[in-house]
Design brief:
There is one protein chain. Helix content is about 35%, strand content about 15%. By secondary structure, the chain is an alpha/beta fold. It has a single domain, classed as 3-Layer(aba) Sandwich (Rossmann fold), CATH 3.40.50.1820. Helix 8 (about 195-200) links the parallel strand 7 and strand 8. Helix 1 (about 20-25) packs across helix 10 and helix 2 crosses helix 3. This is Pimeloyl-ACP methyl ester carboxylesterase. InterPro entries: AB_hydrolase_1, AB_hydrolase_fold, Sec-Metab_Biosynth_Hydrolase.
């Protein structure tokens, strides 16, 4: 049986993984969900100093503190950045890394690089005007749906997402990833692609081509960008299949 460390995306806490974690435990696995600094029940620990390095340390410290070994480290969305940074630091403790609707970050890359310059500028202005200079609030659903697929989320789940989301520490978007250590050739690499990301991978975009080739193994999940909310059991099935 596998040990999963589940890292949520922006605005989310460990709560987002509850149903998927429960399904993994029912299959006999260990599932540990992480809440990163400044979010959910750890919101009061965040501040202007919270950045990508903070979240990388959150992951590595939890793994070492709980003495977890042979772990499958799972990143959803934004979590690709801190998971990439922590994967190489975990050494022999890491067996597998799984990117859910996300992909590894390159050295020197930051979250804002994934956005058009005008969008990045709008976010900076929003944080300065409404987020005390360091907090990025989750956008309204209609705006959120313009950049990320909401497929599969019914009204109760959308309401839950909005109600439980917390402003995200913006320093994690602006700090660039230092040279990440290579997790090593023995670490299994898995990609779970949902609707929009699947379309990008199938489009043959050169910079993503490596994700369709060994050593990467790809699984597709026909749902939107938040599969732990829209298809938690199905996501658990794929995670189970990835370690089988």
């Amino acid at each position: 049986m596998a040990t999963f460390v589940l890292v949520p995306g922006a605005w989310l806490g460990a709560w987002a993984w509850e149903e998927t974690a429960r399904a993994l435990r029912e299959r006999g696995h260990t599932a540990v969900a992480v809440t990163l600094t400044g979010l959910a029940e750890r919101a009061d620990l965040g501040g202007p100093q919270t950045n990508l390095s903070t979240h990388i340390s959150d992951i590595t410290d939890l793994v070492e503190r709980q003495d977890l070994r042979d772990i499958t480290l799972v990143a959803h969305s934004y979590a690709a950045a801190p998971v990439t940074g922590s994967a190489g630091r975990l050494g022999h403790r890491l067996e597998r890394v799984v990117y859910v609707d996300s992909a590894p970050f390159a050295s020197g890359m930051c979250m804002l690089d994934l956005m058009p310059p005008q969008v990045a500028d709008q976010l900076r202005q929003q944080v300065n005007a409404l987020g005390d200079g360091w907090q990025l609030a989750m956008p309204p659903i209609d705006i959120l749906g313009m950049s990320s697929s909401l497929d599969g989320l019914d009204e109760p789940e959308l309401e839950r997402l909005l109600a439980r989301a917390t402003p995200h520490p913006f320093g994690t978007y602006t700090q660039r990833l230092a040279d990440p250590a290579d997790p090593g050739p023995g670490v299994d690499r898995v990609l779970i692609a949902c609707h929009d990301f699947k379309a990008l991978l199938d489009a043959g975009i050169p910079m993503l081509a490596y994700l369709n080739q060994p050593p990467w193994r790809r699984f597709d999940l026909p749902t939107g960008h938040w599969p732990m909310l829209s298809a938690p059991a199905e996501l658990a099935d794929l995670l189970d299949a990835a370690v089988s």
